[in-house]
Amino acid sequence: MPRPRAASPWRRALQNLVIMSHHTMEIASDFIQQAPPGGLHEVYNDLRHLVNDDNHLRNSTAQAMSTYNISQMTQVTLPSGAKSLVTRFNVVEGDNVFYDSTTGATFAFDHFTHEVSAGSGSHAPISGFLAELERAAKDYLNEYYPDGHATVSVFPHGDGAAICFASDRYSPRNFWNGRWRSEWILSGSSLKGEMRAHVHYYEDGNVQLQTKKKADVHVADAKNASAVVKAILAAEQAFQQGLNQSHSQLGDTTFKALRRALPITRNRVDWEKIALYKVGSQIGGK
Questions:
Q1: What DSSP line would sit under 197-244, residue for residue?
Q2: What SS3 class is residue 134?
Q3: Fold observed for domain 10-122
Q4: What are the GO cellular component annotations (predicted)?
Q5: Strand pairing report for 176-187 and 91-93
Q6: What share of the chain is helix, strand, coil (3-state, %, to 5)?
Q7: Contact 65, 32 (CB under 8 A)
């Protein structure tokens, strides 16, 4: 039986390049998924310079860009000037055509440039209780999200509704960006939600805070839009108050636990004389 021919050096090199390219694109997709609020375009442009192949990068990271934008509930401004969201609840076609819940207008969304264009079709706009719910949610948004850029949309979901809030606030002069998003599913008298906060601070460093909390609330009067929104308000306020309390204690508890307030001798170190200390005698107390 003839022995199989060994792969030529050029073929082995090509196989290694293919493997390296695949791993590179996996890493690039991971970077995109971890992009901080307001930093997606900067991350992608940096990747363009590193990869130096725009077509290959775009084709290989298209899914990652789509997943990121949808999971972040990206806010968009429609050709009509109205605000809407890119979410998993209003996808019409593929992963780049969505519909606005208020008007029913469809729109195409470019996941790379975030450009929005009018769609060719239309979708039934929400009405009845869902429209009332969206109006009540917008009143809540206007009162409690006065700063930054915030949007809420309500979509039909199963036998109930999906209520999506997104708020971005960027302060590049102070080197920080932040994003809040919450998703609520109303089914009968059950209201289940997940709230997420993501803050990026990048002055002389790169620090990110990502936190989330789930909530399960019973709404006695679930056919009352105001009652549903009040339940959301109570849950989100509790989450916010918990965050405020935990961060107010950072200096007194968490940060102090990271280091010893005094050396083991319980005496303060005279740093000006540290060079004169003898290890084992003065520091060790022997």
A1: EEEEE-TTS-EEEEEEEEEEEE-TTTT-HHHHHHHHHHHHHHHHHHHH
A2: helix
A3: Ribosomal protein S3 C-terminal domain (3.30.1140)
A4: cortical cytoskeleton; F-actin capping protein complex
A5: unpaired
A6: 40, 30, 30
A7: yes
**Helix extents (H) in the chain:** 9-33, 40-51, 54-71, 128-144, 225-248, 255-257
C-alpha 98/C-alpha 46 separation (Å) is: 29
Q: What percent of the chain has pLDDT over 90?
A: 60
The two structure tokens encoding residue 248: 């107010």
Q: What is the pLDDT of residue 263?
A: 62
What tokens appear for 245 in the block?
A: 């309390």
How is residue 89 annotated by DSSP? T
Distance CA 111, CA 81 (A): 19
Q: Where in the chain is the domain with CATH 3.30.1140.60?
A: 10-122
Question: CA-to-CA distance for 250 and 258, rounded, in angstroms?
Answer: 11
pLDDT band at 262 (very low <50, low <70, confident <90, very high): low
Considering only CA atoms, which of 252, 184, 177, 181 is closest in space to residue 209?
177
Fold of the CATH domain 128-258: Aspartate Aminotransferase, domain 1 (3.90.1150)
Separation CA 197–CA 44 (nearest Å): 22
Say how far apart CA 227 and CA 225 lie, in whole Å: 5
The pLDDT tens digits of the residues spanning 65-107 come to 999 999 999 999 999 999 999 999 999 988 899 999 999 999 9
How many residues does the structure list for the chain?
Answer: 286
Strand partners, 190: 187, 218
Instruction: Look up residue 251 and give its amino acid.
Output: G
Percent of all residues in the chain with a pLDDT value above 70, rounded to a whole number: 79
Q: Which residues have C-beta within 8 Å of that of residue 209, sequence separation ≥ 6?
A: 197, 198, 199
* Interior/surface letters 156-170, b for 16+ CB within 10 angstroms, e for the rest: ebeebbbbbbbbbbb
